[in-house]
Amino acid sequence: MTTAVDVAGQVDLRKRSFLQRYPMVRRLLRHKAFVVGAGLFLVISLVAIFADLIAPSDPSRMAVRFRFRPPSAEHWFGTDNLGRSQLSRIVYGARLSLGIGLAVVIMNAVFGVALGAASGYFKRLDNILMRVTDALMAFPPVLLALGIAAALGPSSLTAAIALAAVYIPRTARIVRASVLVVREMEFVQAAMAMGAGNFRILRKHVLPNCLAPLIVQLTFVFAFAVVTEATLSFLGLGSPPPTPTWGNMIAEGRQYIRDAAWITLIPGIALALTVLSLNLLGDGLRDVLDPRLKIAQD
Amino acid sequence: MGRYIVARLIQSIPVLILVSVMSFGIMKLVPGDPAILIGGPTATPAELDVIRANLGLDRPFHIQMWKFYVGLVQGDLGNSLLLGKPVLEATIERVPVSLSIALYSMVLTLGFGIACGVVAALNRNGWVDQGAMIFALLGVSIPNFWLGLMFIILFSVHLGWLPTGGYVPWQESIGGWFATATMPAVSLALLQIGLLARITRSTMLEVLRQDYIRTARAKGLPEFVVIGKHAFKNVMIPVITVIGIIFSVLLSGSLVIESVFSVPGVGSLLGSAVLRRDYPMIQGGLLLVAWSLLMLNILVDVLYAYFDPRVRYDHGR
Amino acid sequence: MDMASTPPLLSVRGLRIEFGTDQGPARAVDDLSFDLDAGEVLGIVGESGSGKSVTALSIMGLLPTPPGRVTAGEILFEGEDLLRKSRNDMRKLRGNEISMIFQEPMTSLNPVFTIGDQLTEAVRWHERVSMATARDRAIEMLGKVGIPSPERRLADYPHQLSGGMRQRVMIAMALSCSPKLLLADEPTTALDVTIQAQILDLLRALQEEFRMAVIIITHNLGVVAEFADRVLVMYAGRTVEQASVEGVFDRPSHPYTEGLLASIPDLEADVLRLTAIPGTLPNPHELPPGCRFQPRCGYAREECTAASPPLLAVSPDHFAACIRHNGYRLDGAAAAMAVPGAR
């Protein structure tokens, strides 16, 4: 590059350099599925964050006069069996859904990395931890989540813990695989020989190397958490009924499926759109961040 | 081959044991006194004592665990609090119901998934290909219990073709079985079909690029032999590995789907056990389901060895 | 060549093969013509990318289409144009009258079927014989290609055999219907040196036994010297020299052939890029003007960039696409001696 002399040229150079410095960002923005997923997810997140402003009324305010109103200009998403505004309940449901999803993702990131790294580093620990993850992964995910939720009692916190427990072993395995690869690399061996601490090596070498698969995994964990949380509350093991979760709404609407199908229909669509956005996001991230995984796709 | 199976069985022993420990331990997560949760707020202290004695909660932890394992070895998983009969018996009674639906669903998944995948690969970017891709995406995004409810709205409420739920054993009436099993099986399968189609498609495209396919063509074999024999068996290798996963997902899904369609299977049994805090049932159910899945995985590995001779010999020696 | 008495087994006339690419069609083979008599061995020599493998695949009717396409010419096999045959007729010919063996014995056999299964297949489809007959034929063929205890090998899977053994199986498979023409595309390149010689000896012995015509494709003139009757040297999709083996070795008449001879590798050093000739094959989208070899040619002159030289007769059965041997004159007399059909 020649040195830019005139000011205009410099500005131009700086403008270009943002995308040049982050080719990942440029590739992500070119990925159609990612852009659609990210856009959708952003909208849903904003709805969840600003639920208080968007919701037309308190999600638990009942109005017997307005029971079973189908979607209309007045009640966009209709009202339910107790005359509550479906729109308000959907909007607050988004907050709960994404909140639990985020909590699961954070727990996954923290414990998944810790366990995965420990397992990859200490051979003796590895054998035990891997058998434990094998055993945890032997249970069908939803069943394990149900079992844990049943033991701890129904609540949002319980749901989050149960979901995290289901996916932490899977996350730990991904991190462990990266650790095993990275620790054999020459520069890491050199760092070890020079007496760099385990934690330092982990932070400086291992984590950056497994970041890509980890981010992809966490996106899918998010999607999984949202669906399974809805399943748990549909079965009555999430936050107990007056709470406006999408799963609760579907469960309550079920009894009125013959005459008021929208009560069931609308929360399902909200749920599917959220999960779809996360899956698109995950597909995009995987294609761009971790091209190795794409081989299985095309 | 026999040796390989035995080796796989021995390898799985530690995991089987760990699974049993977890199934036992999961109920120890219950905060506070399970007896109060079971008995409810109106239970008298005497009633609570009976519940505790029934569950063995009045004994120290290690005795409880010892009794659990002694029972396990004897095939006794305790008694269901709700049904008042042995957990094992209650579960086994319902296995044929769940299994028939799971197999129905599996057949649909494999049949349509593999067929769509092969057609999609042979007509790359055609409508089947595009459709399978959209299907796969929707499949992982739409929760199956909601899909089941949508089916009820469409096929039972509006069209009146199928009953909203229930179950008729196939031994009683094949037609009745089809009428009751179809919606649950389809809601379970539909979402897996797209996924399997994608996997089959990408594998098929990969296989078609291989040298041995060119060799098969160079021999002058008809195209249906090249695809149906030479490509297909190679495509099946990765597909077999996901069958275990698919079955696990189907089983997981049947838990919820059975309660959506009021099917009296293992899934709804566990569902109600979880809701009503039937702890022995939950413990036993978790254990049995996880063990069956582990066995299924071994079966999948054996199938895999059948399809891929390289694995067979590597492990057999 | 006395073409009047017996028609050649295979006659390729003005073959042109194009590959669709992002930058438009690229000619992989351009105006290729040659004849092959029954029982004759022709060596096609050239660097990778010169169009030799593509030519073989087009004879087999196995050109990957798209992107490849034959856009001109004809391939006459026993007087019939293979390019006009239906897919089904071509299929019946493949593995039966015309067979092919490939460069990669490690990947050319299907890993999930036994040797026996793969060996009996072609016979059973082409000759509609019983399993037992096909099995006997398979055992016989395995014996012929020098595989010890052939009956036991039938139950083996490809991964249980070495590379050399697999190539023997490939040969047995190709010859199991006694083809009249065998196309061998770099049959020894992927093998160990000692095995290479064995496979070549085997091919030569079988060629004599079955009295079949063979086209052996190689980048190695050493292989040609051992095996072939006649040689066709290809460069960038075109024939640059065509002669008997003796003709090529005694009197190479194209600078490219000279370069190839100068760089004849020992069997050990299997170089894909010829070090004796500087430069690389031209990009098919940016072919140089005139003679395609001219940018790499030590003898190049200004005339060489003017027009692509036709095949000129050096002697009655020796042709070279180089104007050097005619004193750099492209007059009527020289042009009249060009091979018929090779415009």
Please give a structural write-up.
The complex is a heterotrimer of chains A (298), B (317) and C (343). With 298 residues, chain A is an all-alpha fold. Chain A is 74% helix and 0% strand. Chain B contains 13 helices and no strands. In chain B, helix 1 (2-26) packs antiparallel against helix 12 (279-307) and helix 6 packs across helix 8. Chain B starts with a helix and ends with a helix. In chain B, 43% of the residues are buried. In chain C, the strands form two sheets. In chain C, strands 6-7-8-3-9-10-12-11 form an eight-stranded mixed sheet, with helices on both faces. A four-stranded antiparallel sheet of chain C has the order 2-1-4-5. In chain C, helix 4 packs across helix 5 (131-144). The radius of gyration of chain C is 21 Å and the shape is globular. Classes of the chains: A mainly alpha (298), B mainly alpha (317), C alpha/beta (343). Chains in contact: A-B, B-C. The B-C interface holds B 210-212, 214-223, 225, 229-230, 233-234, 237, 307-310, 313 and C 60, 62, 91-96, 99-100, 102, 104, 107-113, 121-122, 125-126, 157, 159-160, 170, 173-174.
Estimated share of beta-strand residues of chain B: under 5%
Shape by Cα distribution of chain B: globular
Largest interface (CB within 8 Å) is between: A-B, 46 and 51 residues
Unreliable stretches of chain B (pLDDT < 50, length at least 5) are: none
Count the E strands of chain C.
Answer: 12
| Helical coverage of chain C, percent range | 25-40%
Oligomeric composition of the shown chains: heterotrimer
What's the total helix number of chain B? 13
- What distance lies between the first and last C-alpha atoms of chain C, to the nearest angstrom? 18 Å
Structural category of chain B is mainly alpha
The assigned structural class of chain C equals: alpha/beta
Largest sheet of chain B: none
Tell me how many strands of chain B there are.
0
Low-confidence stretches of chain C: 328-343
SSE pattern of chain C, N- to C-terminal: EEEHEEHEHHHHHEHEHEEHHEEH
**Gyration radius of chain B, in Å:** 24 Å
Number of helical elements of chain C = 12
Strand content of chain C: 15-25%
Estimate percent helicity of chain B: over 70%
Characterize the biggest β-sheet of chain C.
8 strands, mixed
